[in-house]
Write a structure and sequence with these properties.
Layout lengths: L18 H24 L3 H11 L2 H16 L5 H12 L4 H14 L4 H58 L3 H25 L17 H5 L1
Length: 222
């Protein structure tokens, strides 16, 4: 399968910069493993499977894979195993389950029997999906304390202040300070804690791009 070498952006060589791009690329890796396993179940040829995945993938992982396939066609790389090793070197440290899955994908091509190859591909799919579930579970445990703080500062503490403001105002002490804490400091702390919790959210699956003006929207509205 021939892949167009026009990938756009940064050309053939060199990693695309930005932490957000790497995070989005990691979210697309489970889909990549699924495409590779799907193609290898039909034809046990790694280069053909990589070409199929490159044609299906979008986003940063798709661009990277198409660039690798161009290098393979032009002779910069000798086989599809080198492409997998390049992907393991780039994303294996960030997503250990993907490293294991890609190694299983590579070893499945060398299996002699159909049953063994099917079992190896199933193990690759299970490894990447179990890893995604595990990262989501770890994030849920980490975010628990942040959510408790947001609830305390955003719900419980304002209710307590509403009850205490008349008492504090009657004493003539601390009224402006209480208002500043309730109206400025608490919302800022809630906003900061919410942003911090969302920044740690792992991207487990490829983000769906919804167009602003989808085709057929006018017909449905009418």
């Amino acid at each position: 399968m021939r892949i167009s070498c026009r990938t756009g952006g940064s050309g053939w060589r060199g990693a695309s910069g930005g932490e957000g791009l790497e995070e989005r690329a990691c979210s697309e890796l489970p889909a990549l493993v699924c495409y590779l396993a799907m193609a290898l179940r039909a034809v046990p040829n790694l280069e053909r499977a990589l070409g199929f995945a490159a044609g299906q993938m979008r986003g940063e992982t798709g661009k990277f894979l198409r660039r690798m396939m161009c290098e393979l066609e032009l002779g910069y790389r000798t086989c599809g195993a080198e492409v997998l090793e390049e992907m393991v070197g780039r994303w294996g440290g960030r997503c250990p389950e993907v490293e294991r899955s890609l190694h299983l994908i590579r070893s499945s091509v060398e299996e002699g029997s159909l049953a063994t190859r099917e079992r190896t591909l199933s193990m690759a799919l299970s490894a990447v999906l179990d890893g995604a579930v595990g990262r989501a579970r770890d994030y849920a445990l980490r975010v628990h304390h942040s959510i408790l703080l947001v609830y305390t500062l955003g719900v419980l503490l304002p209710l307590v202040l509403v009850v205490m403001v008349p008492v504090i105002s009657s004493t003539g002490f601390g009224g402006p300070a209480v208002l500043f804490f309730a109206c400025v400091l608490c919302p800022l702390m809630v906003w900061w804690l919410g942003c911090r919790a969302l920044r740690g959210r792992p991207l487990l699956f490829e983000q769906v791009r919804i167009p602003l003006d989808p085709p057929g929207a006018g017909t449905v509205a009418a």
